[in-house]
Every structure is written in C-alpha cells, then in structure tokens.
C-alpha cells in the first residue's frame, strides 16, 4: 500500500502544485498565453496514465517501490526547475513535457500493477478487503497532496516573483 500512497502523493503534488508554476518565456513555447501550460501538462499526464493503465497485459511491474521512488525523483526534478529555472528556455518546455508524460506512465503503472498484484497474489476470501484497504492509499495520497500542493505552488510562485519571473501571476 505504501508504494501506491507514495506515488500518488508525489504525482498529485506535481500536478496541483508544480504544473501551474512550470512556466517558460512564451516565445520559446507553442503558446500565446501562460494559462495554456497547465491544461497542456494535464493532457500529457493523462495520456501517460492512459497508456500505462492499458499496458497490463504486456508489461507488469512486480516491484512497486522503484517506480514510486522515481515519481518522487520527478517531483524534485520538476520542483528544482520551477524554483531555479535551470533548463534552457528554448527546450525547457519540451523536456518538462517529456517528464510529465513519464510521470503519468509511472503513476498509472504503479496503480494498475498494485491492483493486479492483489488479484494474483491474495487469497480469494481476503481479496475484497485487500482491494478496499489499498484504495485508501491512493485516496490518502491524493488528499494529502492537495494540501501540500497549495503550499508548494504558493511558495514557488512567490520565489519566482522575487527572482524577477512573475509569469505565475499572469495567469
């Protein structure tokens, strides 16, 4: 259950707290408005989730901690970009977009693999309880991430403004 909690905590903190502040100069992106970044990142994330949740017949993850820790790494990578802006402007958006797809792939894979592992490895009479208990993990991860993300977005936006990048205020 902890890998699912961890992946959802990292994933939804990224989606809710970092996507709104992962901004680049408009001339270096395909956008005309800063508000276009957020729905684009969300579409890319959902595309990754869709692909990975559809891949169980072909690819199955049995060790769930490594992809969960990779998701935490995604959080730190994207948080450092949002705070420090270290990626080159001309390709930064494209790099972040690739990481966001990867984020969706990891999250969807851990989700579907967790429940597939329960279906395959838990005795039939204990399966319903196991599925219900595991569902609490993703709900708790998502809920806690919502609170964490509020602080993350606010603090990173304020940090960006202090450093002369007020794009997060232009949404």
Automatic annotation (TrEMBL):
**Where is this chain's protein located in or outside the cell?**
Endomembrane system; Vacuole membrane
Task: Report the InterPro entries cross-referenced here.
Answer: Battenin_disease_Cln3 (IPR003492), MFS_trans_sf (IPR036259)
Q: Does the keyword Membrane apply?
A: yes
Source domain of life is: Eukaryota
Query: Which keywords are on file for this protein?
Result: Amino-acid transport, Membrane, Transmembrane, Transmembrane helix, Transport, Vacuole
Keyword Transmembrane recorded: yes
Gene Ontology cellular component terms for the protein in this record? endomembrane system; vacuolar membrane
- Membrane-spanning residues: 93-114
Topology of this chain in the membrane: Multi-pass membrane protein
Q: Name one GO biological process term.
A: amino acid transport
Q: Which family does it belong to?
A: Belongs to the battenin family.
* PANTHER family reported in the protein's UniProt record: BATTENIN (PTHR10981)
Task: Return the protein name.
Answer: Protein BTN
Native source species: Heterodermia speciosa
């Amino acid at each position: 259950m902890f890998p699912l909690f961890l992946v959802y905590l990292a994933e939804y903190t990224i989606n809710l707290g970092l996507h709104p502040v992962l901004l680049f100069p408009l001339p270096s992106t395909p956008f005309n408005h800063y508000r276009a970044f957020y729905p684009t990142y969300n579409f890319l994330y959902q595309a990754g989730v869709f692909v990975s949740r559809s891949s169980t017949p072909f690819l199955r993850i049995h060790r769930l901690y490594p992809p969960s820790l990779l998701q935490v790494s995604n959080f730190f990578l994207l948080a450092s970009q949002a705070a420090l802006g270290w990626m080159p402007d001309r390709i930064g958006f494209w790099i972040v977009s690739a990481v966001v797809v990867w984020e969706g792939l990891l999250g969807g894979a851990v989700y579907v693999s967790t429940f597939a592992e329960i279906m395959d490895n838990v005795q039939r009479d204990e399966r319903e309880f196991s599925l219900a208990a595991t569902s609490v993990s993703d709900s708790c991860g998502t809920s806690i991430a919502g609170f964490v993300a509020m602080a993350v977005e606010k603090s990173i936006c304020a940090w960006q403004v202090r450093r002369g990048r007020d794009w997060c205020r232009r949404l």
